[in-house]
Prior knowledge:
Elements: E1 7-8, H1 11-18, E2 28-30, E3 36-38, E4 50-52, E5 72-74, E6 94-96, E7 119-121, H2 139-146, E8 152-153, E9 156-157, H3 163-177, H4 198-244
Parallel strand pairs: 1-3, 2-4, 4-5, 5-6, 6-7, 7-8
Antiparallel strand pairs: 8-9
Helix pairs in contact: 3-4
Amino acid sequence: MTDASDLKVSKQLLKTRSGEFDLASIHSLFLRDVGVCDLGCLGECVSMERLDLSHNHLTVLHKLAGLTTLHTLNLAANTITNLEGLQSLEQLQSLNLSGNLIGRFESLLCLTGLENLQDLCLQDRTNKLTNPVCQHVNYLKEVQRMFPRLTTLDGERLQGKGSELYQLCREIDTQLQQEPVASASLSAPQHPAPWLQPKDWQMADDFQNSMLCDAEEQLTDLLASCKRLSEESEEKLHYSMLGSS
Length: 245
C-alpha cells in the first residue's frame, strides 16, 4: 500500500494496481484506503467498468467525467461535497456515496439525468457511514422523488420483489420514532396514537394475499397434473386388461 496522505493518481500507480500496461485496457480498479486526494490521470482509463475509491481524501470528482463505460463506483468515506463530473457517467448503475459531506438535496441534482442508475447509497448504517442530507426529515421521500427509477436506496429495495415488506418496516420504524417520550410528571396518562395505521395492515394483507394466490395457483396446477396422470393410468390399465383377455 502506498503510504501517503496526499496521493495523486499516476500512470505508474494505475499500471501497478491493475497489472495492465495500457491504461485503456483497465476494466476494474481497487484503490481503497491509499490516501488519494487527486484523481490525476484516472480519466484516461476510458474502458473502466468497476472502480473503488472508498476511504480516501477526495473532494472533487470532475476528472471522472471521461469514464463513460463505468457502471459501478464506490466513493464511500471521502470528503465529497460536490458531485460535478458524475453526470457524464451514462452507464452508471451502482453508486456508493455514504460517509461524505453532502448536505443538500441540490447537490444530488446532477445525478438525476443518469437513466441507468438503479442502486444509490447515501448512508450505510452497518458501517456507520452517512451524509448530513440523510438527517433531513423528508430524506427518503425527497430522494425517491428525485430518482423514481431507483430499485435500491441505502441497501433497501424500493421496487420489485420484497419492496412492500421494506416499505412496511420503514413506516413502522418511522412511527415508532415519532412516539412522544413519556413525561416524568404525574399527570393523567395519555392514550398513545396507534403505532400501526389501517393502511399498514392493508399492505401486510396485500402481501399475504399475493402469497396465497401464488399457493392456490400452484395447488390448482398440481391437482390438474394428478388428474391427468390418473386418467393416463386408467387408460393403460384398460388396454392391458384387453390384451390379456
